[in-house]
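Memo to structure team: turn this sequence into structure tokens by end of day. - J.P.
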Amino acid sequence: MQSIVEFNQRESLHQEVHARPPIALWPQERVVHQAFLITRPEQREMQREWVDALSRVLQQPGHPVHGRSVRVLELNPAPSRLLLKWEMHGEFCAVTLYLQGEPSERPFHETRTDIRQRFHTRLAELGVKTLGPESGERISAVDITIAQEQLSEDAADVAPRFQGNTVIGGTILGTRRAQVWTDFQIDAGGYINFLVNHQGMGSRQAGRVVQRLIDIDTYRMMALLALPRAKSLSEPLSKAESDLSTLSTRLTDTQTGDSDQTIQTDGQLLNGVSALAARVEGWVSEHGLRFTASEAYSDLVRRALSELKETALPGVQTLGEFMERRFEPAMRTCRWTQRRLRELSDRISRTTQILRTRIEFVNERQTQALLSSMDRRAKLQLKLQQTVEGLSLVVLSYYAVGLIGYLVKGLKSAGLHVDAELVTGLAVPVVAGLLYWGIRRARKRAPGYESPTPDKPQ
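Reply from structure team:
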């Protein structure tokens, strides 16, 4: 049997389905997640060098490993398991801590401080420095508590866990065995707190729920990066639309006016439209990618919300409803700004094409007029040439006949009986005919000669 040659990228392509597996969670678990915005290549390298150093010290390659983009490292073994999950994405890096333990009635930020202190202590024991602020700016921070406890039918039961803030949430996974609660407020430590209480939720199922909650907040913030740009473009776009409307009006007035449109006027309009097109294309180049990324991130948020399969509780707003009322308007603003940019660019292109067509038409009309004028001059020159040729024929005939007359008179004086007047008279048509034939022959042999055609009657 012949050996089989594997496609050189088969392994990497296959691992795409295992790129972001959820972490299997214990019934009682704490998840602390942070996402850092990566804006420079050196920040990406700092993140990679840090996780590589940690992997070497722990003598763990990181499992699962998808290229160099995902690492899962065990910092402490059971029974008090502490896991670190590091993920490198296109525009941000995510660092997530998973701590197994009993739930606490203490405020979120207090227990989270204990977890972070434990993490930093462990890094110090391993001799690995903590990531500094130069490795990226924090764009998202989520604190999730997984608690196996009684489900709540009233938001007032869980509100004290969120410092009395208005909470949102409901039943998830399409069953009555798990709930998610949050106030969607940033606490003193900069985190958004979530509480997932359940009655026997599976470990992988719990991991998927946590991943969906992390995705909702992280991708929501990444999508909202386009909102300041959309707001900053609102007034310039209105000004550009007004300028284009003014140019279109001038174009229409010039086209329908009594006076003839000149190339100079059309050129001025074309310069104005070209400057406007350059301005708009600059905005598209500067902000187009951000708006496209925002649309992709917002789709991921909607998908994560749908995968939670929320069921509303009486009088409580679900995460999906909250996002529909608070997040979607911002996304619609970004989509509308992107659409305005695209439509304005299309309108400018059409206006430019109209102007170019008008200028080309005027140029062709002037060229046609110039050719007609040249044709008239050529005809005049032909007529003048024919007139000159006729006069030349008369002059040459006159001199030739005169010479013949002198010759005949000379012969008569020599004693020949010749009638000089008769010979001279007979020589006139012969000489004229010969000269006419010679001129026609010479003209036909000239390069570029075309036989003149009579003008058509008007």
